[in-house]
Amino acid sequence: MNNTFDLIVTMVRLGYSEKIIKASREAGAEGGTILMGRGTGVHERKKLLGIPVEPEKEIILIVVPASLSQKVLEAIVTAGELDKPGAGIAFILELKQVAGICHLLYQPEPDRSGSA
């Protein structure tokens, strides 16, 4: 089987994950996984009573066929406003092997018999 897949990892401010998932689905992705995290980058150095506060982040993991990666990434950048400083980051990792996504590997052939 010669199917190649990519993992799109996106880290955004709290509250943006639903926008990211929606945009990625509209671009052809099947869905994703949302995890919680904390940021420590240069734009997250806020303090409360002199104590550094590390804002919560959402991490979105999306597995897509490699042929859709660029389209999905572009939708994520737009939805997450990743072209603005401190909004987040997204990147693509090539996956060497994938298991458990049978629905993506074995797409049924369309019924061409004309019967319903």
Question: What is the element layout, followed by pairings?
Answer:
Blueprint: E1 5-13, H1 17-26, E2 33-38, E3 46-48, E4 51-53, E5 56-65, H2 69-79, E6 88-95, H3 102-105
Antiparallel strand pairs: 1-5, 1-6, 2-5, 3-4
Helix pairs in contact: 1-2
Q: Going across the biggest sheet, name each strand in turn.
A: 2-5-1-6
Average pLDDT works out at 82
Biggest β-sheet, characterized?
A: 4 strands, antiparallel
Overall SS class: alpha+beta
Oligomer: single chain
Cα end-to-end separation:
30 Å
Number of helices: 3
What sort of overall outline do the alpha carbons produce when their principal axes are compared?
elongated
Can you describe this structure?
- The chain has 116 residues and is an alpha+beta fold.
- It has helices at residues 17-26, 69-79, 102-105; strands at residues 5-13, 33-38, 46-48, 51-53, 56-65, 88-95.
- The strands form two sheets. A four-stranded antiparallel beta sheet has the order 2-5-1-6, covered by helices on one side. The chain has a two-stranded antiparallel ribbon with strand order 3-4.
- The mean pLDDT is 82.
State the gist of this model:
The protein has helices spanning 17-26, 69-79, 102-105; strands spanning 5-13, 33-38, 46-48, 51-53, 56-65, 88-95.
